C-alpha cells in the first residue's frame, strides 16, 4: 500500500526492496553534478558485533551542503533493535567504526561518544518502521554553514547469532538518505523528550517529563514517534500553553516505531509554551526495571519532528527529567498538571485507563527538570 505525498502532507511508503541504489558511501559525502536529487547510503561497513546489546557507530563527513528530504531504513527486525542517525559538529571518533555505548564490553574497538560536540538527532528507526518522506518544502540541512559537519550512524544490535561462527555474517544496516541540493524554504528538526527513573515490581508507572520552550522561534510539529521496550503501553506528548494541554501525539510503542502524523495538524510551539510527555508502563515482573541502554532495561522517549520557516533552528533539542520515583508533572506548577488529559494513559483504540500505582518520594524539588541534548536513545 502506498500513500502519495501532496502539499504539506506527511507521507509514508511501506518498506520495499528497490533496485539501483548507489554504492555504499564510506568516509565522506559530496553531492556533485547537475542533478539536484540523490540517494545516499549511510551504512555499517560490514561489521560483526560480538555481544548482544552492542552499540556501534560509524561516521560520514559532509563535504558539501545538501538537504535531506526522506529516509529509508535498511535493517532487519530481530537483529537490529534500533538505529539512530545523528548530526555532529565533530564526530565522536576518527575510527571507521567504534563502540559508542556497549555496556558489557566484548568488542575490541575504541570506545568513544557519538559526537565530540554539536550533537543532534536526525532520524530514528525501530520495530520495522517504513521509510519516511518529509512534507513538501521541508528539508533537513546538513553541511555548509549548518551545525552538521558529520553524520553518525548508531546501530544497537540485539540478536548477534548470525555474526558468530560458523555463520560469520557481516552487517550493512543503515539508512538511505533521500537528498536534494535545492534549497528548501522550511528546515526540519527533532526535539526529544525522555526520562530516567525506575518501574517498581507489579506496578503501573507514569514516567513524565516537561520543559519550558523559551526560544524566539515558532515550531510547527508535523510528526511524532514513540519508543519504549516491552513494558511500555502508551506514550503521549503535549504542548501546554497557559495551562491548556493540546495533544501532539499518542501511540502504543508496541506498534511499528515510525513517525506518525501529529494528532492536530496546525498546532504550533512558541516561546512561553511547555512541552510535556508521559510514558505509561506496566511491570508484572518481580524485579524493579530501570531506564538503561540494554533490551532488558526500559526507555521512555517521545520524538517530536517539526519544521521552522527559514534556516534557524532552536539551540535546545531535548528535555529530560529524573523520572519516578522522584519527579512527575505535579512538580512543575506552571503546566497545571491537573489539566492533563485523562486519556494520556489510554492506549488509542481502547477505553481502559491505566492508573498509576507507583508512589513518589517527597524529596524532589519543584521545577526540578533537566534540559538535555537528547543523546543516544
| Major β-sheet profile | 11 strands, mixed
The helix-strand sequence is EEEEEEEEEEEEEEEEEEEEEEEEE
Q: Helical amount among residues, as a percent range?
A: under 10%
**What ranges have pLDDT less than 50 throughout 5 or more consecutive residues?**
1-34, 365-377
Give the strand content.
Answer: 35-45%
> Distance N terminus to C terminus?
30 Å
Radius of gyration, in Å, reads 20 Å
Query: Helical stretch count?
Result: 0
| Main structural class | mainly beta
Topology:
Elements: E1 11-13, E2 28-29, E3 37-43, E4 54-62, E5 66-74, E6 80-88, E7 90-91, E8 98-99, E9 115-117, E10 120-126, E11 131-133, E12 138-142, E13 150-157, E14 174-180, E15 186-195, E16 198-199, E17 203-212, E18 220-227, E19 232-241, E20 244-251, E21 260-261, E22 274-283, E23 289-290, E24 301-309, E25 318-321
Amino acid at each position: 500500500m502506498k500513500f502519495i505525498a501532496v502539499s504539506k502532507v506527511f507521507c509514508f511508503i511501506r518498506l520495499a526492496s528497490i533496485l539501483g541504489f548507489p554504492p555504499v558511501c564510506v568516509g565522506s559525502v559530496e553531492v556533485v553534478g547537475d542533478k539536484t536529487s540523490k540517494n545516499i547510503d549511510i551504512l555499517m561497513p560490514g561489521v560483526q558485533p560480538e555481544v548482544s546489546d552492542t552499540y556501534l557507530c560509524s561516521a560520514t563527513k559532509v563535504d558539501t551542503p545538501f538537504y535531506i528530504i526522506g529516509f529509508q531504513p535498511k535493517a532487519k527486525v530481530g537483529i537490529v533493535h534500533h538505529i539512530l542517525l545523528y548530526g555532529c559538529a565533530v564526530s565522536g571518533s576518527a575510527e571507521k567504526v567504534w563502540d559508542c555505548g556497549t555496556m558489557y564490553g566484548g568488542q575490541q574497538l575504541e570506545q568513544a561518544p557519538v559526537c565530540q560536540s554539536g550533537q543532534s538527532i536526525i532520524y530514528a528507526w525501530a520495530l520495522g518502521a517504513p521509510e519516511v518522506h518529509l512534507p513538501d518544502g521541508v528539508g533537513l540541512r546538513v553541511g555548509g554553514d549548518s551545525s552538521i559537519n558529520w553524520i553518525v550512524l548508531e546501530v544497537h544490535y540485539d540478536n548477534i547469532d548470525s555474526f558468530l561462527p560458523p555463520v560469520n555474517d557481516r552487517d550493512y544496516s543503515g539508512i538511505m538518505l533521500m537528498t536534494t541540493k535545492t534549497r528548501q524554504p522550511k528546515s526540519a528538526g527533532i526535539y526529544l523528550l525522555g526520562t530516567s527513573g525506575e518501574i517498581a515490581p507489579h506496578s503501573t508507572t507514569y514516567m513524565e517529563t516537561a520543559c519550558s520552550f523559551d526560544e524566539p522561534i515558532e515550531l510547527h510539529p508535523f510528526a511524532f514517534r514513540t519508543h519504549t521496550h516491552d513494558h511500555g503501553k502508551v506514550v503521549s506528548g503535549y504542548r501546554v500553553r497557559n495551562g491548556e494541554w493540546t495533544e501532539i501525539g499518542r501511540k502504543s510503542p508496541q506498534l511499528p516505531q515510525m513517525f506518525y502524523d501529529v494528532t492536530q495538524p496546525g498546532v504550533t510551539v512558541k516561546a512561553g509554551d511547555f512541552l510535556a510527555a508521559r510514558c505509561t508502563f506496566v511491570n508484572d515482573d518481580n524485579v524493579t526495571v530501570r531506564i538503561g541502554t540494554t533490551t532488558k532495561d526500559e526507555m521512555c522517549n517521545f520524538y517530536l519532528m517539526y519544521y521552522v520557516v527559514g534556516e534557524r533552528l532552536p539551540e535546545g533539542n531535548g528535555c529530560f527529567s529524573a523520572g519516578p520515583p522522584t519527579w512527575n508533572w505535579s512538580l512543575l506548577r506552571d503546566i497545571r498538571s491537573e489539566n492533563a488529559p485523562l486519556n494520556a494513559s489510554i492506549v488509542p483504540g481502547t477505553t481502559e485507563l491505566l492508573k498509576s500505582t507507583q508512589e513518589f518520594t517527597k524529596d524532589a524539588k519543584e521545577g526540578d527538570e533537566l534540559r538535555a541534548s537528547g543523546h543516544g536513545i
